[in-house]
Automatic annotation (TrEMBL):
Pfam families: FeoA (PF04023). It comes from Blautia argi. Keywords: Iron. It comes from the Bacteria. Residues 4-83 form the Ferrous iron transporter FeoA-like domain. This is Ferrous iron transport protein A. GO terms for molecular function: transition metal ion binding.
Length: 89
């Protein structure tokens, strides 16, 4: 199963945080960005649901760990999530 950026979740779609990737940032910036996202609760294994989108699809609001957090698409692109397997009959 492939990981996708969090910003690609549609409203009411659920996924699980797989990790954080910020390849374009400088080393010092990477540590700050990753720590900020971890502090917000975007830790590996955390279930997350897209609950709302802003005007022009930015920012998105996500429910995780009992809170709703709005983050910009540029930050949500760094958070990789896995979708649950589709149920087939």
């Amino acid at each position: 199963m492939l990981s996708i950026p969090l910003c690609q979740l549609k409203k009411d779609q659920c996924a699980v945080v797989e990790g954080i990737s910020c390849p374009s940032a400088k080393l010092e910036e990477k540590a700050d960005i990753i720590q900020r996202l971890l502090d917000l609760g975007f830790c590996r294994g955390t279930p997350v649901t897209c609950v709302n989108t802003g005007i022009f699809k930015n920012p998105h609001a996500y429910a995780l760990r009992g809170s709703v957090i709005a983050i910009r698409n540029e930050d949500a692109k760094m958070i990789l999530v896995k979708l649950p397997p589709s149920k087939t009959l």
